[in-house]
Specification:
Layout (H helix, E strand, L loop, with lengths): L1 E5 L10 H9 L3 E3 L18 H15 L7 E6 L1 H12 L4 E7 L13 H7 L2 E3 L18 E3 H17 L7 E6 L8 H9 L6 E5 L12 H13 L4
Parallel strand pairs: 1-2, 1-3, 3-4, 4-7, 7-8
Antiparallel strand pairs: 5-6
Helix pairs in contact: 1-7, 2-3, 3-5
Length: 234
Amino acid sequence: MKALVLHGFTASVDTVSLLAQTLENKGAKVAMPVLRGHGTVPEHLFRVHWRDWVADARAALLKLAPTEKDPVVIAGLSVGAVIGCVLAAEFPNRVTRLGLVAPAFSFRSKLIHLLPLLKRVYRTWSGNPEFANPELVFQNTNYLNFPIETFEQVLALTKMTEALLPQVQCPAAAFYAKKDPVVPPAVIRMLDKKLGSGLAERHTYKRSYHEMFLDVEAETVTEDVVRFLYSTQK
């Protein structure tokens, strides 16, 4: 099996490396690209457009599965799940399964609507992740802040992708943490309604926060995602 694993906004690949390693241990060929502006310092996110992230993910997919005879599964965390939906709509004959982990199509923060005003005063916004077990925060290698103007690109990406969801025809599953402080539960209902294929599976977790592959139920989440991605593989 070939698998594309996508991290989220401000995130490092450490947030999805457990999934990638588990897939590799089962014999999968895995691509785990670093999306534009990530993996270095937050300042590198300035002037990055959402199309850059999609282009990076697309390039990784095409390198991994260069022809339509090369089926590939995609698993994305947070904004990586949004980008996964874009690719599934773009490559319907290549993408065979789609795992959407904490899919960030909307956000709990009430400050979202104040971004145009906030941008006049501040250039950056704090983004320190939380964990169900505070002792796990040492694992964090994500950026601790990010440009507000680049977060506006995230919002533009989610809006554009939501319009594409009816074109996603492959089986998709959602993996959601009830205590996620970032993504509201309404996102799962929206996906089930708007995805062309609907949701084949829904998995919910009682203890985890947003970083589901690093938090207290990381092994369970990983097992569930891998099981779904392999469930129809020969």
